[in-house]
Amino acid sequence: MTNSFKEKLGQGGYGSVYKGKLNNGCLVAVKVLNKLKGNGEEFMNEVAATSRTSHVNIVSLLGYCFEGSKRALIYEFMPNGSLEKLIFDADTPKGDHDHHLGWEALDEISLGIARGLEYLHRGCNTRILHFDIKPHNILLDENFTPKISDFGLAKICNRKESIVSMLGARGTAGYIAPEVFCRNFGGVSHKSDVYSYGMMLSEMVGGRRNINAEAEDTSEIYFPHWIYKRIELDEELGLPSIVNEEDKLRARKMIIVSLWCIQTDPSNRPAMKQVIDMLEGSVDCLQIPPKPYLSSPPKSTADSSTTLVSIQ
């Protein structure tokens, strides 16, 4: 199928992804998992979660291989790669970053991801919490339609459950909701995905990682705070590629939505249904939220690898 693993698409903590072709000519991405860690929970999660879904904004699982220690997942191929490559283009010189797609496309992508998440939280027979929403895990098809992928850390719960029990924190530093690693902030729920979505939306707007330890001005290290100040004082946003009033309104709307999503108290965050309504509505109807409370996340948050950490 993959022509002896000839074309590698990517590499992650889980293993490698290769481009392949089915007999009918359909292009696929084949994710070959490393020798299994633990009891293979991530593999089982991925198969269990994605096989329950059918939505335009969720990547389609076409099949899987389970033979001895060899495990692979077969997904539809996404020609435009991940959102991460699009918003953090390493080839772009510093200070000269330009959104490749423009604000209208970014707006559409943010809405598509929100619809996919809302479907996971409310549209399936069972509620699926993803726990690893970040630009790396959003794939783009030939029309730049976003699809949520990588369900290795997902939790499938009863729809009546609002709070889920977890032994440890799971996710990627920089996107993990406060309550996931410290229960003092509240219970873990679908609102934890909302937080990760907000952090990702903020990176889409800024065209940079939220935490930039190299920033010359300390106020610019943590992007959500820097942009909050500009919104609060109604200053120029100072963002790349805003060329007209429409762009400015789109950017402002996305910023306000992201700031609501990253509120420290989960009960202050909107559900994904409200996020969709906010993104589809007029920016004039949006209130500016309170300033997000976490002021300086630990340095390690720049690490972008997925983790499943035990908390004593």
From TrEMBL:
Segments forming domain Protein kinase: 3-294
Lineage: superkingdom: Eukaryota
Gene3D superfamilies from the UniProt entry: Phosphorylase Kinase, domain 1, Transferase(Phosphotransferase) domain 1
PROSITE patterns assigned to the protein according to its UniProt record, in alphabetical order: PROTEIN_KINASE_ATP (PS00107), PROTEIN_KINASE_DOM (PS50011), PROTEIN_KINASE_ST (PS00108)
Pfam families: Pkinase
SUPFAM superfamilies for this protein: Protein kinase-like (PK-like)
Residues holding ATP: 31
Location of the protein in the cell: Membrane
Region (Disordered): 292-312
Keyword set, alphabetical order: ATP-binding, Glycoprotein, Kinase, Membrane, Nucleotide-binding, Serine/threonine-protein kinase, Signal, Transferase, Transmembrane, Transmembrane helix
SMART domains per record: S_TKc
Chain intervals with Polar residues compositional bias: 301-312
Main location: membrane
Bilayer topology annotation: Single-pass type I membrane protein
Family: Belongs to the protein kinase superfamily.
Name under which the protein is recorded: Rust resistance kinase Lr10-like
Annotated organism of origin: Prunus mume
Lineage summary: Eukaryota, Viridiplantae, Streptophyta, Embryophyta, Tracheophyta
